[in-house]
Specification:
This protein is of the alpha+beta class. The protein has one domain: outer membrane lipoprotein receptor (LolB), chain A. The protein has 3 helices and 9 strands, in the order H-E-E-E-E-E-E-H-H-E-E-E. The chain has a 9-stranded antiparallel β-sheet, with helices on one face. Pfam families: LolB.
């Protein structure tokens, strides 16, 4: 009985240490010295649900640096591994997922191709700053921004979509 307890304890400790070894500390995007002072930096968790025929749902940890015109978005698993890296600048946008790379001539076009939903990129940056900028078809709720939470829903045009963001507290 004692040997069995010791084996269970050893197995549990090994599993815990293995998981702890897999967890990565949050990454820190480095602001480009040439980046405008208006560039923002946010991190937290996001969830997007698109109510189309596939009923798509996506959630991840994120770190975002930039503006609607130029920036970088990193998406993470719960253990901190990088899922994807999205980069954009005027006239170009790219998504890197492991060895796969997808490019487009703009961030809104690439997001539309990836999610099947038209996300209001410029308004999203304002929403993250606590400004309720209007976006066609979208209703944003910033009533919980003091707690680092925002949500937005699109009912028209179809398909309906819901975006939820929980920001890390400083």
């Amino acid at each position: 009985m004692l040997i069995r307890r010791q084996l269970c304890a050893t197995a549990a400790a090994t599993a815990l240490l293995t998981l702890a070894g897999c967890a990565l500390p949050p990454r820190q995007l480095q602001a480009d010295a040439a980046a405008p002072a208006a560039a923002g930096h946010w991190s937290g968790r996001l969830a997007l649900q698109v109510e189309d025929a596939q009923n798509q749902s996506f959630s991840a940890g994120f770190e975002l640096l930039g503006t609607p015109q130029r920036g970088e978005l990193l998406l993470f698993t719960p253990l901190g591994s990088t899922l994807a890296r999205l980069l954009w600048a005027p006239g170009q946008a790219s998504l890197q997922q492991g060895e796969d790379r997808k490019t487009s001539d703009s961030l809104p076009t690439l997001v539309q191709e990836l999610t099947g939903s038209d996300l209001p990129i410029a308004a999203l940056f304002d929403w993250l700053r606590g400004r309720a900028t209007a976006a066609a078809g979208w209703q944003v709720d910033l009533s919980r921004m003091e707690q680092g939470r925002l949500s937005a829903r699109r009912h028209d045009p179809q398909p309906p979509a819901a975006l939820r963001i929980v920001l890390d507290t400083p």
